[in-house]
Amino acid sequence: MSTLVVVGAQWGDEGKGKVTDYLSARADMVVRYQGGNNAGHTVVVGDREYRMRLIPSGIFHDKACVIGNGVVLDPAVLVQELDYLAEQGISTQHLRVSGAAHIILPYHIRLDELDEDRRGTLRLGTTRRGIGPAYADKSARIGIRVSEYLNRAVFAEKLRRNLEEKNRALAALYGAPGFDYDVVFSQYQAYAERVRPLVADTSLLINQAIDRGENVLFEGAQGTLLDLDHGTYPYVTSSHPVAGGACIGAGVGPTRIDRVLGTVKAYTTRVGDGPFPSELAGAEGDWIRERGREYGTVTGRPRRCGWLDTTIVRYAARVSGLTHLALTRLDTLAGLERVRICVAYRRDGDIITDFPQELESLEACEPVYVDLPGWPPFKEPDSSADLPGEARRYLEEIEERCRLPLALISLGRERGQTLAITDVFGDPPACRNQAARI
Ligand code: IMP
After folding, report:
1. Which of 128, 190, 368, 384 is in Cβ range 3.0-4.6 Å of 344 for a Cys bridge?
2. Which of ligand 1's atoms lies nearest the C-alpha of 274?
3. In the chain, which stretches have pLDDT less than 70?
4. Which residues does the annotation mark as catalytic?
């Protein structure tokens, strides 16, 4: 019985939705700790495919699910997802939302769009869902928390004050029309009634679940290189996908986290702009994109594709303290004659094995590859020993280069297409702090 954080070890879209869905079968509680509806999770159950943006993947197992305080929540999207799940016959009775999460309002979305358009070639490639402006308001201490949103008088006052300011900014900076207070207020009051029954002190609920010895899974959105501090700034999201983000975004202490699973795609993808050393600009990149259906879940944008880069995964291991890896999409690469792994960078004649902190430095990096034989398409194996020898060699190379054991291998979109190697919910390490409540 233990706690596990699942993080993306690349630029997001590593397949965390599939991995968390698979692991949710063993979890008692699944917690989202950051991001908002910029994330896209695709979960395949039998012949049905579900696309979610906000609600944790654990919902498909009818587990206790939490949207933590670190999330920015668009009430309109939450209501859409609640309706969608109800139509699909999936229960949301165990879903809880933190009263301390901040809400996304229409002016955040409008500002995200206008800011992006204004940046022109310097755009960040955001998902235009209002994520950055909502987190900016949170940091500026003018954001609106879910608990304030549900208090009619407090919401009315804060919305009026914010709208005055935002409407002035929209007009002055962009000559854009503002928002009408009455329209926004009444629309969001209607959503509030759907949110109200879900709201709780989720930090308390999570810590109580840990006290009871339950399996708690913290589900990160996006990936390490999109982290506001540890990613390829400024081409990042405005929250903390790294494992430490789970502590802040869920309200648990670091001593209560037992394991951290880094999800790694067998190759690398990136949406949005910014440097990407192992990117494949030509036919090989197109082949991976088409084979892997690499188009954004939220925006539909084609993803940039490239070879696996273990410099990035080792960096993710460092900043999140990864204990294990989950490798996804091994099946997608089947059929190539040769596969490559970027193991280091060459910059100004030097070999660099540590992922550089500065963007300018990363831009100047050339990939250093090791080449390995590709593997043919294969039938679903019962164990990793049944995989083609070349695929096993690829996995061994990854474990060696990343200095981490593989706990899971995903070989397809469905739950069953997964090889479990290690029990990531095994007994907690002896040093775990059991006493959270004093
Ligand atoms: P934002 O999170 O919408 O502000 O976008 C900031 C950056 O994060 C952009 O490069 C987005 O493409 C990227 N991003 C945000 N969410 C995801 C995701 O779930 N997968 C991959 N990239 C993402």
Report:
1. 368
2. 10
3. 431-438
4. 13, 41
> pLDDT by residue (tens digit) across 249-292?
999 999 999 999 999 999 999 987 889 999 999 999 999 999 99
Tokens, residue 306? 């490239």
Q: Are 112 and 161 within one domain?
A: yes
Instruction: Say if residue 246 is in the same domain as residue 377.
Output: yes
At 220-242, the pLDDT tens digits run 999 999 999 999 999 999 999 99
What's the pLDDT at 122? 87
6, β-bridge pairs: 219, 261
Cα(380)–Cα(391) distance, rounded to whole angstroms? 13
Kindly state whether residue 23 falls inside one of the protein's structural domains.
Answer: yes
Q: Among 197, 232, 259, which residue terminates a domain?
A: 197
Tell me the CA–centroid distance for residue 62 and ligand 1, in Å. 28
276 CB near ligand 1 (under 6 Å): no
- 212 and 189 inside one domain: no
pLDDT value for 266 = 98
Last residue of a domain, one of 179, 197, 215: 197
* Residue 64's CATH number: 3.90.170.10
Q: What is the pTM of this model?
A: 0.95
Cβ contact 437:212 at 8 Å: no
Distance 71 CA to ligand 1 centre (A): 14
- 418 vs 415: CA distance, rounded Å: 6
Structural domain count, the chain: 2
- pLDDT at position 430, please? 72
Q: How many CB atoms lie within 10 A of CB 434?
A: 10
Question: pLDDT averaged over the chain?
Answer: 95
Q: Are residues 217 and 186 in the same domain?
A: no
Alpha-carbon gap, residue 271 to 88, rounded angstroms: 29
CA of 14 to the centre of ligand 1 (A): 13
**Atom 8 in ligand 1: residue holding the nearest Cα:** 237
Same domain (yes/no): 248, 393: yes
Residues 31/209, Cβ–Cβ less than 8 Å: no
Is 132 found in the same domain as 261?
A: no
Q: Residue 428 gets which letter from DSSP?
A: P
Whether residue 116 sits in one domain with residue 68: no
Does ligand 1 come within 6 angstroms of the Cβ of 207?
no
Looking at residue 365, its amino acid is: C
Domain of residue 392, residue span: 2-73+203-420
Contact between residue 240 and residue 249 where contact means Cβ atoms under 8 Å apart: yes
Verify whether ligand 1 is closer than 6 Å to residue 131 (CB atom).
yes
